[in-house]
Amino acid sequence: MDVTVSDPLVGRLLDGRYRVGRRVARGGMATVYEAVDTRLDRTVAVKILHAGLVEDADFVRRFQREARSAARLSHPHVVAVFDQGADGGTPYLTMEYVAGRTLRDALYDEGPLSPERTLDLLDQVLQALAAAHEAGIVHRDVKPENVLLGRDDHGDVVKVADFGLARAVSAATNTSTHGLLMGTVSYLAPEQVTHGTADARADVYAAGIMAYEMLVGSKPHEGDSPIQVAYKHVNEDVPEPSKSVPGIPAFLDALVLRATARDPAVRPADARVFLRHVRRARTALRDGVDDPELTQDLTAFRRPAQAAAEHTLIAPLEQIRAASKAALSPSVALRPDRLDDGKPADYADVPEPHEPESPSRAWWLRVPVVGGLLAVLLLAGGLTSWFAGIGPFTRVPPVVDVAQKKLPGLAEQSGVKFVVAGQVYSENVRKGHVVRAAPAPRARTWRGGPVQVWMSLGPEVHDVPRLAGASEDRARQLLSEARLRVEEVQTAFSDTVGAGRIISTSPEAGTPLRRDGAVTLVVSKGREPVDLPPVAGMPYDAANSTLTALGLKVARTDAFSDQVPPGAVIGQQPQPGRVFRGDTVHVTVSKGPEFVPVPSVARMPVAEAQSKLAAAGFKVQVTRNPVFVGLNVVVNQTPAGNARARVGSVVVLDIV
């Protein structure tokens, strides 16, 4: 999986709708990214045309034709196309996102597939191609990279992608554009190479090549350059898969050979016809029986036509003898076949010439002949010994679990040439040692010929990805891409992680696990609700302990109170009810009554004294002195001036 952080398109919002994520794949015309459709909140695949091709109107038209062609197909095994557009002059289209891997990844990881799995995958591929052929569309680029493998409860689910080279059959079917051969050379039908044309039978040919590759683990035609491979497609038949993998039934050989016949007229007419052959083969394979009738039907095209009979001219024995004698005696000539009167000539009338006895040849004249015979016998004996002993053939030595550094010495001893074909994971073979070979060990092969070996990468190990904060669906997708699985989903409340998001994993992120290792997800239920009790009137310490035990935070404010004893809670905010763990509760704690100095108002007019005391927070009571004369001047106050009294208490004024 290609993830490129430096890619300028990563993180970009296409057309104000599609948020581009990591890069998934890169092809000859476009790059595919994982993206999120922000309008519908779903994951999609976005295919964006390469920047260097945007200026080429022909490529842009082909890119747009892909969307129109693929959008016409609605089938469970065809990747759906959702939308098409352009952002800042950059054409793009959005497609169904298929989580999983490609058939190429499966072949790289697992090597040859079993006949049962091969036919199962081929059946689904042909269903998709049959739907396309019935719609008048030729895929033109069938290959393992364009076969996506998902999983469900029943096994592999195939989705055929990239109709980028597809074109309606009613349109022109020339495969070359500006001299460029479209398609992948390893899967091109011969007529695509020689004539540049393709129809449904070209897809059948490519599917047959893909079937061979699934059964054998390698392509039928290899070469140092694309031209060499194309030449072999045109001039060489695809070999039977059983020649490379013994044990493959004859009807499977016949199935592959029929689909990959070089003459398109011999192949199944389209994917629907090929699918019928495949399903008949699946039935025979499932029942564990051979199907000679199927083999005969599929290989009928290979029966050699009866050679044209050559007429043999037979002469009478007497005529042959006479001709021989005439050759020895030039004085005697054969008569013509018929006389002038038309009657047959009587060869008995021809006189036999005298044959002189051959003189005995000298012995020294016979020495070269005898010597030549002896040389021929010695050469024949030598060749026989060479073929029986050293010969052009040898056997592949046992190489499984042999270290790579030991292969050169083993090759020198056995007379073969080891070629590292790839690296695969193995649970049983140590890293750097041979997992398998083709041809298989003990098989007969040409001396000096290549033997492909696959080296072990050791057990397949993948790190647990970082999933904290991701949605559960996204977490499952990332684990599937990391070749890991979800074992259990637990839920928990969280003050910091939103509902439906991953809080943590077990094992934690970065832990290496074997392939299909189990990971437990902890999914947030959101914040935990709690019932807030009343704490007014409670001592602050008791109120604080009660709220803290519920997972709430407490914020304290002190205030004077004439009614609430010092240290007790005057009030709370929010009021009792439903809150969430982690919320803050504000409480006001009483400092008791407030005492302040009483203003001195002696000798003040009563009105002025009342105003000054009221401003200080006191209540005023006026009484007349026994010697009251009507001056209304304060002569005495209780409490006395500058004495401390509780705010709101009564100050008594004595006036005269």
Describe this structure in words.
The chain has 656 residues and is α+β, with helices and mostly antiparallel strands. The chain has 6 domains: 84 residues, 2-Layer Sandwich (Phosphorylase Kinase, domain 1), CATH 3.30.200; 198 residues, Transferase(Phosphotransferase), domain 1 (Orthogonal Bundle), CATH 1.10.510.10; 64 residues, Trypsin Inhibitor V, Chain A (2-Layer Sandwich), CATH 3.30.10.20; 64 residues, Trypsin Inhibitor V, Chain A (2-Layer Sandwich); 62 residues, Trypsin Inhibitor V, Chain A (2-Layer Sandwich), CATH 3.30.10.20; 61 residues, Trypsin Inhibitor V, Chain A, CATH 3.30.10. Helices cover 28% and strands 25% of the residues. The protein has a 6-stranded antiparallel sheet, with helices on one face. The protein has a 3-stranded antiparallel sheet with strand order 7-9-10. A 3-stranded mixed sheet has the order 15-18-16, with helices on both faces. α3 packs antiparallel against α8, α5 runs antiparallel to α7 and α7 runs parallel beside α9. The relative contact order is 0.05. The N terminus is likely disordered.
Put the structure in a nutshell.
Residues 335-358 have a biased composition (Basic and acidic residues). With 656 residues, the protein is of the alpha+beta class. The chain has 15 helices and 33 strands.
CATH topology call of the largest domain: Transferase(Phosphotransferase), domain 1
Strand content: 25-35%
Basic shape = elongated
Q: Taking all residues together, what is the mean pLDDT?
A: 81
Helix fraction by DSSP (H/I, runs of at least 4): 25-40%
CATH architecture of the largest domain: Orthogonal Bundle
The helix/strand class is alpha+beta
Q: Largest sheet at a glance?
A: 6 strands, antiparallel
Gap between N and C termini: 103 Å
Give the CATH level 1 class of the largest domain: Mainly Alpha
Domain Protein kinase: 18-280
Domain PASTA: 458-525, 526-591, 592-656
Protein name: non-specific serine/threonine protein kinase
Keywords: ATP-binding, Kinase, Nucleotide-binding, Serine/threonine-protein kinase, Transferase
